[in-house]
C-alpha cells in the first residue's frame, strides 16, 4: 500500500448503492488507516474510515479539495456520477488562502447567533407539518421523511436563499437524484443536465426579482474584490449550499426518529428527563452520520499514515465521516449501539478542519425543534412496519433511510 512503483493492488469496490455502508466501512477500517478502493465509476481512490485517520487527513494542509490538484482528473469517465461533487466550482472545492477568503464571505450567515434568529421560523414550519400529521385519521400512515424532515429542511434553506415556491419541488428532486451514486452513466448525465437547468432557472429568477436573501446578498452582489461570483461558481455554490443545507438535516431528523422508535427505552428516558434532545442528536450524529463520503480530496505530498500506509502525492482520497463515530478505537464501548446517555459521543459527522460544515448549527437547530415538536405532539407515534428495516438511500455520499413509514396516531 505504498508508492506508484508497487504492483497495482486489488482494490475493493465501494457499493454504488450504499447497501451496507457501515459494514463496508468496518471492513475497510480493519485493513488499515486508509485503503485503496474503487469508487463508483471505476475511479481509484484511498478511503479512510477510522476516526483518527479521518481527523488527521481533514486537518492536514497537504490535503486539498481543489480538483486542480488531481493529476488524474482527466481520466474520470464521462457522465461520472460523482463529477457534480468532485468538479463543483464552489468555495468548498478551493484550498488554503483561497478557501479561507471564499468561506469568509458566506460563513457569517450561518453563525450561531444568526442561526438562532431562525428559531421562530423553524418552529412555525415544524408546527404546521406536525399538525398535518396529527390530522391523519387513526391508523393512517405517512412517510416521515417526506412529510416532515424534507419539507422542514427544504423550507428553511430555500427561504434563506430566496428560492421561490414554484421552483422548490423540482430543485429538491434534482438534488435528491444527484445523491444517488448508483445511477448509470446515461442517467447521471441526464440528472446533471436537469440540476443545471433548475439552478439556472433560480439564478434567472433572482436576477429578475432581486431580494434581500443569501443569493442576492452573498452571491450576486460584489464580494471583497467588488465583483460578483462568476456564473459557474454561482451555480456550484448554490448546489453546495442548498443541497448540503437540507440533505444533512433531512437525514439527521429521519435517522433520529428511526433510532428513537426502534429504541423505546431511550425515548422513555428523554421523556423522563434522564437524557435530552441534544443527547439524542449528538448520538444520532455519532451512530448514523448523515454524510458518508463527500468526494474528493487530493494529497499534495506523500502522506505517511503509519502502519506502512503512504498515500502518494496526487492520489484522490475519500473520508468516511459517518464511519468515524463507530470506530471501536475511539468508542470501545458498544460503538454500534444507540445510547444517548453515553458520556463520549464524539463524531466527525460535520467534518473537521477548514472544511467543517457551515450548516452544523442550523442542522442541530432544525433537528432539535423537529424531534421535540413531533414527540410532544404525537406521543403515540409508531413505526408502520416495525419488523421491516427501511430501505437506505442508494448512495455512498449520504447516509439515511430513503423513507420512514410511521403511524402518527395508531388505531385503538
Can you offer a commentary on this structure?
By secondary structure, the protein is an alpha+beta fold. The protein has a single domain, classed as Orthogonal Bundle (Cytochrome p450), CATH 1.10.630.10. It is built from 15 helices and ten strands. It has helices at 21-29, 51-59, 83-86, 96-106, 112-116, 119-134, 144-161, 165-178, 185-208, 214-220, 231-262, 264-271, 277-287, 321-324, 360-377, and strands spanning 35-39, 43-48, 63-64, 142-143, 297-299, 303-306, 309-311, 316-319, 382-383, 405-407. The strands form three sheets. A five-stranded mixed β-sheet has the order 1-2-8-5-3, with helices on one face. A hairpin with a 2-residue loop joins strand 6 (303-306) and strand 7 (309-311). The N and C termini lie far apart (60 Å). Residues 1-5 have low confidence and may be disordered.
Structural features:
412 residues, alpha+beta, Cytochrome p450, 5-stranded mixed β-sheet, 3-stranded antiparallel β-sheet, 15 helices, 46% helix, globular, oxidoreductase, iron, monooxygenase
Amino acid at each position: 500500500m505504498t508508492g506508484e512503483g508497487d504492483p497495482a493492488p486489488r482494490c475493493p469496490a465501494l457499493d454504488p448503492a450504499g447497501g451496507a455502508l457501515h459494514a463496508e466501512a468496518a471492513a475497510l477500517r480493519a485493513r488499515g488507516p486508509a485503503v485503496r478502493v474503487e469508487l463508483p465509476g471505476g475511479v481509484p481512490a484511498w478511503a479512510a474510515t477510522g476516526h483518527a485517520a479521518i481527523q488527521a487527513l481533514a486537518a492536514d494542509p497537504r490535503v486539498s479539495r481543489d480538483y486542480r490538484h488531481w493529476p488524474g482528473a482527466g481520466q474520470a469517465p464521462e457522465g461520472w456520477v460523482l463529477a457534480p461533487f468532485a468538479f463543483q466550482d464552489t468555495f468548498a472545492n478551493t484550498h488554503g488562502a483561497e478557501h479561507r477568503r471564499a468561506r469568509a464571505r458566506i460563513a457569517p450567515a450561518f453563525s450561531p447567533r444568526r442561526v438562532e434568529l431562525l428559531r421562530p421560523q423553524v418552529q412555525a414550519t415544524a408546527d404546521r407539518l406536525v399538525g398535518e400529521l396529527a390530522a391523519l385519521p387513526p391508523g393512517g400512515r405517512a412517510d416521515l421523511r417526506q412529510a416532515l424532515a424534507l419539507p422542514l429542511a427544504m423550507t428553511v434553506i430555500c427561504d434563506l436563499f430566496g428560492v421561490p415556491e414554484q421552483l422548490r419541488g423540482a430543485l429538491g428532486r434534482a438534488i435528491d437524484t444527484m445523491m444517488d451514486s448508483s445511477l448509470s452513466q446515461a442517467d447521471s448525465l441526464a440528472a446533471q443536465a436537469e440540476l443545471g437547468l433548475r439552478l439556472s432557472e433560480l439564478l434567472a429568477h433572482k436576477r429578475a426579482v432581486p431580494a434581500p436573501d443569501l443569493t442576492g446578498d452573498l452571491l450576486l452582489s460584489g464580494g471583497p474584490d467588488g465583483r460578483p461570483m462568476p456564473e459557474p461558481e454561482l451555480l456550484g455554490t448554490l448546489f453546495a449550499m442548498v443541497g448540503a443545507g437540507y440533505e444533512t438535516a433531512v437525514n439527521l431528523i429521519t435517522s433520529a426518529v428511526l433510532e428513537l422508535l426502534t429504541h423505546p427505552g431511550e425515548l422513555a428516558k428523554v421523556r423522563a428527563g434522564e437524557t435530552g434532545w441534544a443527547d439524542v442528536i449528538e448520538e444520532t450524529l455519532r451512530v448514523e452520520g448523515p454524510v458518508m463520503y463527500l468526494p474528493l480530496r487530493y494529497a499534495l505530498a506523500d502522506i505517511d499514515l503509519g502502519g506502512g500506509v503512504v498515500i502518494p502525492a496526487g492520489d484522490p482520497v475519500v473520508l468516511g465521516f459517518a464511519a468515524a463515530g463507530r470506530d471501536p478505537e475511539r468508542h470501545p464501548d458498544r460503538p454500534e449501539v444507540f445510547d444517548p446517555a453515553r458520556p463520549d459521543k464524539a463524531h466527525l459527522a460535520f467534518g473537521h478542519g477548514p472544511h467543517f460544515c457551515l450548516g452544523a448549527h442550523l442542522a442541530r437547530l432544525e433537528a432539535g425543534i423537529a424531534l421535540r415538536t413531533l414527540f410532544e405532539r404525537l406521543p403515540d407515534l409508531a413505526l408502520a412496519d416495525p419488523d421491516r428495516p427501511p430501505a437506505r438511500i442508494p448512495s455512498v455520499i449520504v447516509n439515511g433511510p430513503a423513507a420512514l413509514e410511521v403511524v402518527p396516531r395508531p388505531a385503538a
